Amino acid sequence: MIDLIGAVALGAASALVVFVYIHWLAFSNGRRGAVAGVIGAWFALVVACGATGVLGAAHGIGPAGLGIAVLLPLAVFSYFSMRTGMLGEALGAIPLPVLIGVHAMRLLGVFFVLLFWEGRLPAPFAPAAGWGDMLIGATALPVAYLAATRAPAWRTVTLVWNALGLFDLADAIALGAASAPGVPFGLGSQGANSDPMTMLPWILIPCFIVPLLAHSHLLIFQRLRRSGAASEQAQPVSQPYRN
After folding, report:
1. How many CA atoms lie within 13 A of 171 on its CB side?
2. Which of 6, 30, 104, 139 has its CA 20 to 30 A from that of 153?
3. Distance CA 180, CA 186 (A)
4. What is the C-alpha separation between 172 and 157, in angstroms, rounded?
5. E strand or H helix that includes residue 91
């Protein structure tokens, strides 16, 4: 039952993240459709990998393949967003509160905890990933509100929240890799390891949702840096004192 509920919830979460990226891109409808097609093909590839178990440790590539599946999309997104050009400018136009608020979906980290309670995922991977995600998800909308209203200290609060959110994703990836079966001195066990994350529906988390959310964290850092520089330039230059 939890797998079925997870499939529905993660499918909806994936659609929401894609909608945020596509809807707010300052592109024509044709270019938006092209971007949506590329992301759709990526999603289909992830689903195919989960259905065939090609990234599993038992009969597939194993942790190395899963690591590539997580980091390669993030690297590609980061490359195009950090360079100057049409796509970079379009991604830079996504409103900051939207980039923050979409992380409310990380309340779905409860599935990590539920799978841990069922004995299907090990500690410390599942509890750390689950509770960390829920903390970031629960605070996403309040932080987005602070950023939208430019409340006092909003930039500092957003910076701290964003750093914690990115660290949580990195920590979950590291613990998941260390909990994979066959990893020397790993954190997995014979009863539970992170191999379920290579199968449907849970493969959608590391191989599709995590790269998009991690990339949004990088976009938030970029936006905070730019807003800070703009704020400094907007400050009036003090005149030297003259007798």
Report:
1. 17
2. 104
3. 7
4. 23
5. helix 86-92
